[in-house]
Amino acid sequence: SVPLSYFGGLGGASRRGILVKGASFLEALARLHTVVFDKTGTLTRGVFRVTKVVPYNGFREEEVLAAAASAEVYSTHPIAQSIREAYGKEIPLEEVKDFQEIPGHGISAVVEGRRVLAGNDRLLHREGIPHEICNIEEGTGIHVVLDGVYAGYIIISDEIRPDAKEAIFKLKELGVQRIILLTGDQERVARLVAQKLGLDAYFAELLPEGKVKKVEELQAALLNPDKQKIAFVGDGLNDAPVIMRADVGVAMGGLGSDATLQAADVVLMEDAPSKLVTAITIARWTIRIVR
Ligand code: ADP
Ligand code: MG
Predict the structure, then answer these.
(1) Where do you find CATH 3.40.50.1000 in the chain?
(2) What is the pLDDT of residues 94-146, one digit of tens each?
(3) Does the predicted interface ipTM exceed a cut of 0.90?
(4) C-alpha angle 43/178/274, rounded to 5°?
(5) Predicted confidence band of residue 48 (pLDDT cuts 50, 70, 90)
């Protein structure tokens, strides 16, 4: 039978906007050895702003932005939202056909009869589009291709969440041994975030299944897997597989899809990494009373 104080712990957590789906996850939360964070929307706000549009091959700025915004019309990705916002005009839905979102890559769609690609290097590589190496210093670069011709890139920037640095500091204080960043974003962006937050390691340019593999590798490397648990914290966009794989899969924010909310062992209702610190503190307190 489950000791009564577990219910106290689960209840105390839920009053603080932390849903823990069972006593076993309180145990695991109390024994976290490694915490793996997703970047976009988790450690960062996931609210991108377009800071620059750089056209190529005779295209105009407005044309590049319009094509990307139209291609992104059905995407709920934060990158898509920022591009539509920067464009600022109504997008006629009937002009957008054959919309495809490729996780970790970007978008392919036909806009006013032209094939538009909007995404990262990997998307261009996959589609066999050669492109000049662009000089992106700050932020994430999204390439735009029109009918197979490289049309330029859009630079968008995100911000680290205000409570992230303190949350990382407190996780270390609580004895979490390794704090790791996984992201589908570029190496350069990942390095900057990891440096700013003092993380132990980062792995960039990962596809959703690459994140799963990384978590499996981290699990396999543990000396005492019965006592050392691994949490993955994500915002729930394309995160369901890796949330399922971790010992404690944490979905942050109410934004996640039904699939992720179902896959998660712990749901943090608020968009704040510091809620994980609260969850661990409650878990430790509950376990101590039980013993
Ligand atoms: P993260 O791991 O940081 O949460 P994602 O896996 O959601 O990021 O996306 C990884 C990368 O894939 C993005 O940085 C971007 O380059 C590209 N990408 C994903 N979705 C889109 C989209 N809708 N439009 C353009 N690029 C996208
Ligand atoms: Mg994400």
Answers:
(1) 4-45+161-290
(2) 999 999 999 999 999 999 999 999 999 999 999 999 876 666 667 889 999 99
(3) yes
(4) 35
(5) confident
Residue closest via CA to ligand 1's atom 21 equals 106
Catalytic residues: 38
Q: Which residues contact 101 (CB under 8 A, 6 or more apart)?
A: 74, 75, 77, 107
CB atoms within 10 A of CB 277: 20
State the chain's mean pLDDT as an integer.
Answer: 92
CA of 85 to the centre of ligand 1 (A): 17
Strands 106-111 and 114-119: antiparallel
Q: How confident is the model at residue 57 (pLDDT cuts 50, 70, 90)?
A: very high
Element containing residue 29 per DSSP (H, E): helix 23-30
CATH of domain 49-157: 3.40.1110.10
Domain 4-45+161-290 has CATH 3.40.50.1000: yes
Identify whether the C-beta of residue 268 lies closer than 8 Å to the C-beta of residue 20.
Answer: no
End-to-end CA gap in the chain: 14
Would you list the DSSP string of 146-190?
A: ETTEEEEEEEEE--B-TTHHHHHHHHHHTT--EEEEE-SS-HHHH
Listed in order, the ranges of the chain carrying CATH 3.40.1110.10 are 49-157
Which ligand lies nearest the alpha carbon of 233? Answer: 2
Does 108 sit in the ligand 1 pocket, CB within 6 Å?
Answer: no
Residue 38 CB–ligand 1 contact under 6 Å: yes
**Angle of helix 274-290 relative to helix 4-15, nearest 10 degrees?**
160
